[in-house]
């Protein structure tokens, strides 16, 4: 794990700890609760992740092929705290994405094994009705995401004339936001949580062949994410 990922994780954990400390100081015990959630999500990367090419050197003599990444189902784990109508959540999701490449030579399409996308999210929810008084509560959600996409092999490395120089593993790192709506349906300590989100990401680092580059312009992706999870409230 490199220092950038460590710094993001430390920042997210710190924010959640601040939320917990605020709850301890401002709320009574019966006004707050902690919970864990196991979720499934349908997630994918779009926009620039559609058989494009990313210049990896300043003179543009070499480029890294950017794959087409389809949507797929993934799983995640969430810890959260609710104080009245406001909740904060820290989540980790992993999704395997169908991956294919279209190389310059002859326009052939080469398929690789599924890429892995790790998504860390810090989300805040506002419930439109008090969950303590209603079994069904709708909410709005706004949050921050950090994504890392690891593509195993079959990533083309080209000279400016289109010659295939080789292949290697690559990693794409980026960050962005989540915004959407959802619902919570409660059965005593067990609850069902579902949401539809808009996820926007900008990728500003790529690591290929042991070297890290900063793409210019940054790669972007925007997609709709559907999540459904089971919650256990303490």
UniProtKB/TrEMBL annotation:
Start and end residues of each Outer membrane protein beta-barrel domain: 14-234
Gene source species? Hydrogenispora ethanolica
Q: Which InterPro entries match?
A: Beta-barrel_OMP, OMP/PagP_B-barrel
Q: What is this protein called?
A: Opacity protein-like surface antigen
* Organism lineage: Bacteria, Bacillati, Bacillota, Hydrogenispora
Signal among keywords: yes
Kindly give the SUPFAM superfamilies that the UniProt entry links to this protein: OMPA-like
Which top-level group of life is the source organism from?
A: Bacteria
- Pfam name, any one: OMP_b-brl
Query: What keywords tag this UniProt record?
Result: Signal
- Record's keyword annotation contains Signal: yes
């Amino acid at each position: 794990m490199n220092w950038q990922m460590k710094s993001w994780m430390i920042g997210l954990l710190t924010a959640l700890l601040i939320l917990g400390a605020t709850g301890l100081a401002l709320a009574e015990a019966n006004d707050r609760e902690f919970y864990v959630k196991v979720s499934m999500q349908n997630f994918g990367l779009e926009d620039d992740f559609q058989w494009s090419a990313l210049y990896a050197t300043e003179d543009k003599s070499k480029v890294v092929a950017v794959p087409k990444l389809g949507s797929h189902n993934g799983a995640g784990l969430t810890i959260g705290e609710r104080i009245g109508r406001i909740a904060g959540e820290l989540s980790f999701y992993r999704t395997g994405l169908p991956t294919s490449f279209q190389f310059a030579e002859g326009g052939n399409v080469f398929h690789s094994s599924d890429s892995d996308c790790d998504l860390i999210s810090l989300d805040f929810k506002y419930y439109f009705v008090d969950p303590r008084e209603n079994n069904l509560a709708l909410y709005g959600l706004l949050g921050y995401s950090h994504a890392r996409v690891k593509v195993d092999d079959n990533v083309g490395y080209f000279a400016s004339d289109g010659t295939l120089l080789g292949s290697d593993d690559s990693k794409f790192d980026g960050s962005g936001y989540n915004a959407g709506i959802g619902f919570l349906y409660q059965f005593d300590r067990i609850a069902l949580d579902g949401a539809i989100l808009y996820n926007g990401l900008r990728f500003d680092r790529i690591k290929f062949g042991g070297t890290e580059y900063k793409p210019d312009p940054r790669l972007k992706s925007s997609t709709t994410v559907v999540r459904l999870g089971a919650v256990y409230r303490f």
